Amino acid sequence: MLCPLCNNFDIEFFHCDKNREYLQCRRCKLVFVPDRYRLSAQDEKTEYDRHCNSVTDPGYRKFLSRLFIPVCERLLEGSSGLEFGCGPGPALAAMFQEAGFTIALFDKYYHNHPEVLKHNYDFITATEVFEHLQHPGTEIQKLWKLLKPGGILGIMTKMTKDKPSFANWHYIRDLTHICFFSQTTFRWLGARLGAEPEFSGSDVIIFQKPLKQ
Questions:
Q1: Where are the domains of the chain?
Q2: DSSP assigned state of 21
Q3: Exposed e or buried b for every residue in 77-87, given b needs 16+ CB within 10 A?
Q4: What's the pLDDT tens digit per position in 144-189?
Q5: What does the pLDDT look like over 72-82, one tens digit per residue?
Q6: Which CATH number is associated with domain 39-164+177-208?
Q7: Cα 206 from Cα 199, distance rounded (Å)
Q8: Is the pTM of this model over 0.90?
C-alpha cells in the first residue's frame, strides 16, 4: 500500500474503530483510510447532498471568513482565483466576488467544468476539501501548477494532533473524510513545494508560491 500523498511504502497502523481502520505514513505523517473503506461516488455524493450550506447564511459566511480574511489580506486588486471543491452552495466564491475579485468554480459533482483547470490563477482556495481527496498528492500538484508565481493557496481542513485525541475526534465519524493532515504533514508538503506553510487558527493553512522556482 502506498501513501496517497507522498507515495511512500512505509506505512504503519494508527487507529481502528467500529467503522474503519486508519493508517499513517511514516514519512509525511498523513493519516488515511485504506481504499476498501472509501465510499462509492454515488454514496459520497448522497452524503454531500445532505449538507445545507447556503450562500446567504451568515453563520456559514462567518465560518468561511476564517479562510477568506487571511487570503484577502494577501491579494492585489484585480486578482483572479479558483474555488476548488466549491460544493453546491459556493458561498466563499460569492464573498470574493463581493470583495471585487473574479473567481472560477470547480467541483466534480456540482460544478464539473474541467476547462477552468486549464488556466492560471492568483489564488486558489480549498475549503473542507483536502480531507475528501482520494489522491491528495496528485491533486495538490495540479493545483500548485495552476498558481501564478507569488500566488496564494488557501486551505481549510481540521488537523490531527495525536492518537488519543484522534480516537475521540468527531471528524473521523464522517465516512467521506479519508485523509487527515497535521501541521507536520503540511510542513512536509511545504518542503516539497518550496513554500513554508502559514497556520491561521486551528484549521487554516496558507501557502504562497515562490516568485521563482
A1: 39-164+177-208
A2: E
A3: eebbbbbbbbb
A4: 999 999 999 999 999 999 999 999 999 999 999 999 999 999 999 9
A5: 999 999 999 99
A6: 3.40.50.150
A7: 6
A8: yes
